[in-house]
Amino acid sequence: MKIIVGLGNPGEKYSKTRHNAGFMLIDFIAENHNLTWHEDKKLNAHTAKYDDTILVKPMTYVNNSGQAVQAILSYYKLLPKKLGIFKSGNSDLSDVLTVIHDDLDIEFGKFKTSIDSRSAGHNGVQSIINHLKTKNFKRIRIGIKDNKPEQMPAVKYVLGRFTKDDLEKVKSLFEKISYNII
To answer: Label partner for 27 (CA 20 to 30 A): which of 6, 119, 162, 178?
Structure first.
């Protein structure tokens, strides 16, 4: 079984913002496979199933994504355990967990895949690392770096909406990325 998590903030207020690139890509995948989202209050997430893959949108807001990711992996018994306690060290979840999120250090229109890398300041990724006690999972990092004015705080920039032209570029990028995800 595989878990693919798209990071984002729930609610219309955050729809189509740069910080919701993970939600947007996972919605794109679900739509292309005619999947239906289901609200799972126990897991604090929306989920959609495709064969042995579960798509996940945590409803915890980006900065607390680790809560929902840990709950889902625990629910499906995908967390390595030893006597009911997480193994110490860097458990390898790279075959089980993929996290999709925005990345302010990657040029807009590009993406990178990484495994076993630090959060690089992304609070949602850090929350997942903290809750799972490992950074050894796959990440798809969607570039949102653009011509951000120097004086604009990063928080304001990532919570800004994509322009109409940007959304067209994002759709093209999502087609490239999603080809090999499921």
So the answer is: 119
Note if 19 is an active site residue. yes
CB contact at 8 A, 17 and 155: no
Catalytic residue among 19, 46, 101, 131: 19
Question: Rounded mean pLDDT of the chain?
Answer: 92
C-alpha 174/C-alpha 157 separation (Å) is: 21
Provide the token pair at 97: 């967990």
pLDDT per residue as tens digits for the range 12-39: 999 999 999 999 999 999 999 999 999 9
In the beta sheet, which residues pair with residue 56?
A: 5, 47
Entry pTM: 0.94
Domain ranges of the chain: 2-178
**pLDDT surpassing 90 at residue 54:** yes
Fold of 2-178: Rossmann fold (3.40.50)
